[in-house]
Amino acid sequence: ETFGDPADGCAIGNVEVTPNLLKISGPASIVSRINRVTATINVDGISGDVSDNVMPVLYDENGLTISSELLEMNQSVVTIRADILATKSIPIRCQVSGTPASGYQYRGVEYAPETVLIKGEAAVLNGITAVNIPADVINIDGVSKDVETSIDLTPYLKEMGVSLVDDT
Questions:
Q1: Which tens digits make up the pLDDT trace of 71-96?
Q2: What is the dihedral of CA 59, 63, 66, 71, to 10 degrees?
Q3: Hey, which end of the chain has fewer CB within 10 Å, N or C?
């Protein structure tokens, strides 16, 4: 897990913990209560990749910390690494294909949001000017009323080697 906000113009990328598996032994009544184990790193104000050695914290299903005094772990410390990526706000551009039904006219396309905040390596971001939605995604062939659709931007961004800062 991470806490804090990276420096302006930055976003959290991949976060990895090494090792990602722990062997925990001790009284069954305590071990059976373990629901999850976390390693946490502070990324507040950070503008570059960061790494830290931290003690894993054990939690029960209610989110309460479980004391590790009576437990043995094969690793008392794990290494957590967070990649910090650059961000960029870019416009979305939509095109439309097809011809509406006879007697109807295409008047234009409206969409929201008009821009998205993306994250990636700075060298990749520098070459990106917009997210272009191909014309065949919005086809108005034979329609006689307004068309409303949702478009997942993820495949287009992935193709460019970037992702959304906010997945929604």
A1: 999 999 999 999 999 999 999 999 99
A2: -20
A3: C
